[in-house]
Amino acid sequence: MAIPFNSAEIMVALTSELAEAREVIATEFVKDIVPRTPVDTGHARRNWQVNWGVPTGNELPGVDKAGSDTVTSGVSKVRTGRNRNPFLPVVIENNVPYIGRLNAGSSKQAPANFVELSIVVAINRLKARKEI
């Protein structure tokens, strides 16, 4: 005996789950990467940017040594896009010319591959939410 199902309901549920996962991972990544970024002037921390769909490629002026303004702005930008197409990517970028060197370990303030570490942290936070 076949078990009836509604494919439209399944698609809505899957789309909702995808959108939620995207929001959680992006939010948790921003909350982790900004304070993890080594700071001298605060310019690299200031340049973590959240956009929808496509990267800007822009380097922002200014500094944010503590990183709190950058986190607040990034999380807000993620949340403003929560009702967008769930297949539209969240683009999180940092366009300072030396971000690659920082991520390679040029600063004693952060280990090499701190960007990748923040990605793992964000994914693990999503998994932890789903286990509750």
Q: How does the SSE layout of this entry go?
A:
Elements: H1 7-36, H2 43-46, E1 48-52, H3 68-80, E2 90-94, H4 99-103, H5 114-131
Antiparallel strand pairs: 1-2
Account of the 3D structure:
Helix content is 53%, strand content 8%. With 132 residues, the protein is mainly alpha-helical. The chain has one domain (31-131). A two-stranded antiparallel ribbon has the order 1-2. The relative contact order is 0.19. The mean pLDDT is 93.
Number of helices: 5
User: What spatial order of strands do you see in the largest sheet?
Assistant: 1-2
Count of individual domains: 1
Unreliable spans? none
Q: What Rg is obtained from the alpha carbons, in whole angstroms?
A: 17 Å
Q: What percent of residues are in strands? A: 5-15%
Helix % is 40-55%
- Main sheet attributes: strand count, strand direction, barrel closure: 2 strands, antiparallel
H/E element sequence: HHEHEHH
End-to-end Cα distance: 34 Å
Average pLDDT reading = 93
Helical/strand content category: mainly alpha
Number of strands: 2
Backbone shape: elongated
Provide a brief overview of the structure.
The protein has 132 residues and is mainly alpha-helical. The protein is 53% helix and 8% strand.
List key phrases describing it.
single chain; 53% helix; 5 helices; mainly alpha; 2 strands; 132 residues
